[in-house]
Amino acid sequence: MAAHSMLRHLVELAKSATGADSAELVILGEPEFRVLAGDLSIGGSERWSEQVQVGCTTEQLEDLVDDFHSVMSVPITGPSAEPGWLAVAHTEPGGLSETSTDSLDRVATLIEERLDRTVERIRLDQLGSVLRANQEDLKVARDQLAASNTDLEQFAYIAAHELVSPLRSVAIYAEVLESLVPNDGSGASDRARECADAIRSGVTTMNQQVQYLLEFSRAEQTATKLETVDLANVVSSALETLAESLREVDATVSVGEMPKVQGREVPLQSVFANLIRNAVNYRHPDRRLELQISSEASNGSYRILVTDNGLGIDSADHSRVFQLFERASTDSPGTGIGLALSRRIVEAYGGEIGVDDSSERGSVFWLELPQAKAAA
Fold it and tell me: Which of 210, 238, 335, 221 is nearest to 281 (CA)?
């Protein structure tokens, strides 16, 4: 209604500016749009309106309508508007002067601009409606995904717990089986003991994987309980946990100044332990393992670098190694869960994790974590 009222004012302006007795705006389309100004009840006005509707010229209008002795019309066009006409008429010969043409052109320009703005507003309103509908659909999809993720996490947690008991039974029966085999030094006895050892080793590996799955299913549960964490303590604890493994491979480790970040201490200790263990597992056989842990500030967060001189990871596998049960190589020990778990933990705290090639022919694992909030 506001657009129609504005157009009526503009048609009145055309009538007034040109000194015409009548003015009419016709926008062709389905349905046809028509705005009048002045009295068009003069004889022959219906024929005049019909001819304007089909886009006749000023000369044709003057020939067809005897009651109007002075007629002017200009086309109404625009990138967004339907084509149409703005016409003015006067009952007196010479009632419309040559200067009226400029006035009519200016009003026609105003009408075109108004039509364009109106059409664009309508399109924006329609687009807004579509966006609101899409937002509702996205909300529904997000809620469904959240429910699905919760169900999957519960399933993984329950399944992992259910696996613990049978694994214990297998380990116990492996011990019983070994005790029943006589230690007589025969080939059969030695073979039976080897089988028992293989069973125990498999059970140990399975139990580790179950524990990793339990951690994986719980990784995001503490995301809303963030605290200030001193990474110096976290890295120190992780290195202490793996001290024996590092001594066995005669590794050298250097640790730079570590910042304070937002997160949880125990899960982040698990992240660094996974990265350090990964460096040990994928060390180069021909050189001593050198491990460097450093940090740098980066736009409201800290970037932590864990650099080694090991075998490195092919660029094509940089993303794949963070997926569940994926490993850079099957020749080295590992479950394919540690890096996936690390990514889940870091992302739950609003951070990122990745890997790049090292200039020392190894790998640079990096993680970005938000800076600790200042005390209130």
Answer: 335
Judge whether 361 and 286 are in contact, CB under 8 Å: no
Query: CA–CA separation, 177 vs 200, rounded Å?
Result: 11
Q: What ranges in the chain are assigned the alpha helix state H?
A: 2-18, 45-53, 58-64, 99-180, 187-218, 231-241, 243-248, 265-281, 338-348
Structure tokens at 233: 């303590």
Q: How many CA atoms lie within 13 A of 261 on its CB side?
A: 30
Same domain, residue pair 249 and 332: yes
Residue 168: give the domain boundaries.
134-218
Q: Is residue 153 part of a domain?
A: yes
Predicted pLDDT at 220: 56
343: left (phi over 0), alpha (psi -120 to 50) or beta: alpha
- Which residues, 6+ apart, have CB-to-CB distance to 249 below 8 Å? 280, 283, 289
For residue range 335-367, what is the model confidence (pLDDT) as tens digits?
A: 567 788 888 888 888 899 998 876 667 889 999
Q: Could you tell me if residue 376 is inside a domain?
A: no
R_g of the chain, CA atoms, integer Å:
40
Overall average pLDDT of the 198-207 stretch: 78
Contact (CB, 8 A) for 333 and 323: no
Does 105 lie in the same domain as 44? yes
In angstroms, how far is the first alpha carbon of the chain from the final one?
Answer: 54
* Cα 323 from chain centre: 19
Phi and psi at residue 22, to the nearest 5°: -145, 155
Query: For the whole model, what pTM was predicted?
Result: 0.49
For 63, other C-beta atoms within 10 Å of its C-beta total 12
Helices (H), 54-98: 58-64
